[in-house]
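Sample entry (448 residues):
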Amino acid sequence: MPECFRSVLERLDKDNELLHIRKPIDVRYISPLIVQADKPVWFHDPISFDIPVVSGLYWKRDRLARSLNWPESELGVRFPRGVQKMMDPVTVEEAPCQEVVKLGDEVDLTELPIPFLGERDGGAFISAGVLLARDDEGVVNAGVYRLMYRSRNETSVDLVTNSDLRRCYEAAFKRQEPLPIAVCIGVHPFEMLCAAFKAPPGVCEMNIAGGLHGEPVRMVAAKTSGLPVLADCEIVLEGEIAPVGWTVDEGPFGDFAGMYTGVRWNPTFSVKAMTHRRKPLFQVIQMPWENAWLGAVAMEAQILEVLSAAGVHTVAVRVTEGSACRWSVIVSIRKRAGGGKNALMAILSLPDTKHAVVVDEDVDIFDAEQVEWAKTFRVQADQDVIIISGAQGKHIDPSVRAWELPKGQLPTTSKMGIDATTPEGISPDHYEIITHPFRDKVKLESFL
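Predicted structure, serialized as tokens:
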């Protein structure tokens, strides 16, 4: 049986990488305590709730690596192995996530200890749910979308930006039919990581998770729709997105870019069933960094994949922290003639990338001074800077002025690529770095 959310916590606890807070805690204080902690936190006794809260597993890159049980330096490299070794999920008849079943009027979301994540948030948000939906071709899509609490059996669902779930909903909305979905809370980091990844068309993200586990992910049929859900998760919310379109006010929300979104318009999710383990845990993803670092691994993997398809020999990839690990990318390559421009075109074709810098393999992309040196001395702006207008954008970026758009309309953005590789026709001798004489023969310590 593959590892699940609980076994990850057991492993972290064994390695002394989990902080336990056993004192009663007001759920309003969960968010500020998470960001102060130097480890993931298990809140055992939220006041007025019977369900403990776990959060902070992905707050920093090293914590994400420990949760995945991978070396930190191999995050972007290991993820593509799941794509290469995909496994179809297996269906089981009985599952831990359905030990308790509540249907119809029994559903009450106020049983969940949903905290406020940002001071100016417009409501309490479920942030760590993996949403599953079936598209018109029968493929089950998985993604991570925030849900704002509205009532005991209804939330809004964030479908502002372009996504597979939005496309599924648009097709159902055109037919004026509800879209059945399921939300799995408390999942293994592999499932969360894969849900944050834009899988190739026709591929279920849980097949990739199986490749990462090295064995198939266990699924069970949802009680109300038959939609496959993650058998070993903690809590499942079953229901449907109503065909009301982008009509319900939602937000503001402190998003993963570190800024608040404004009030948006989104559809609603009606919860028809809630199933869970007998003693479930409620996972929270705290903005901004948990979501950002989850996205970083998927972004680096996507960049490696698209560069490989473009025939670019990639040495290293880095998504930058200042861009919330998503919009800005630095890549070092083993260059052939024109390779810098080819790499830029491939990187900027990805929907989330906005700025890209490509350097030669002699530049350490994790050293900001070296990258700045390459941009300064290997770039002519009129020859080496690429600008693309009218590309796919995201509402979360204030510079696209999304508030000026009609309800439900997708924004566009401009993209920029900088080819900071050595220009063709210039000898490498012109970039020879100064070295100092006799540096191997004399040591300062000998003279002190």
